[in-house]
Amino acid sequence: MARAGLTTERVVLAAADLADEIGFENVTVAALARQFGVKDASMYAHVRNVRELRERIALLASGEMIDKIATAVAGRAGKDALVAFADAYRAYALERPGRYRATHTQLNPALVAERAEYRRTAEVTTEVTHGMLRAYGLSEPDLTDAVRLLRSTFHGYCALEAIGGFGAPRPVETSWRHALDALHIALENWPRAEEGPRDRPAPFTPEHDGGTRQGPPRPL
């Protein structure tokens, strides 16, 4: 690629593609410079260091992932919404492994504060996740518990599938479908927590998934 026309957006997008090819942990400023056919110094006009580069990949990936999930879930409710959400999550995790890994990165709060995209992604994440679970009638603290169950199931399944961790002859797709059936039943029959003074319903935020306030907005 020619040096002319480089923008931060193009640099970050190329870095995200590179993450899918060689692994998120292997993305460096030097590796990205080689992709563009320029010297390392040319990259620093767009990102301060490798940490910022990876943080920007995380923000990009989080937005892409929730947008795909939102499109899949639109117009659906109940089990149909759950399945659509889960399938979109799994597809992104398997098709974009570097980007997906990036969504688990801790971020610099200052970078997050200056990015309108982060706020938009957080809002969409809240809306889509709440919408998917609305049919099950969950409120806090049950909502947080359900989100953690779904996220750990989706992430664990995708992580094992990506490394060929399911060795039994039974089709992986069949097991996935049965897992979603089981999750639907669990959500329909959720053991309601007894409400106490501190158990009043609270709005869903990315932190409800058990992550940190520095993390990017994550679907579940």
Instruction: Tally the beta strands.
Output: 0
**Any low-confidence stretches, pLDDT <50, length ≥5?**
196-213
Structural class: mainly alpha
Amino-to-carboxy terminus distance: 37 Å
Q: Give Rg in angstroms.
A: 19 Å
Total of DSSP H or I helical runs spanning 4+ residues = 10
Q: Strand fraction band?
A: under 5%
Give the H and E element order. Answer: HHHHHHHHHH
Q: How is the biggest beta sheet arranged? A: none
Instruction: Compute the average pLDDT.
Output: 86
**Which of globular, elongated, flat, extended, rod-shaped describes the shape?**
globular
Q: How much helix is in the residues?
A: 55-70%
Short key terms for the protein model shown above:
220 residues, 0% strand, 10 helices, globular
Could you explain how this protein is built, in words?
The protein has 220 residues and is mainly alpha-helical. It is 62% helix and 0% strand. The protein is globular and about 60 Å long. About 8% of the residues have low confidence.
Question: Could you give a quick summary of the protein structure above?
Answer:
The chain is mainly alpha-helical. Helix content is 62%, strand content 0%.
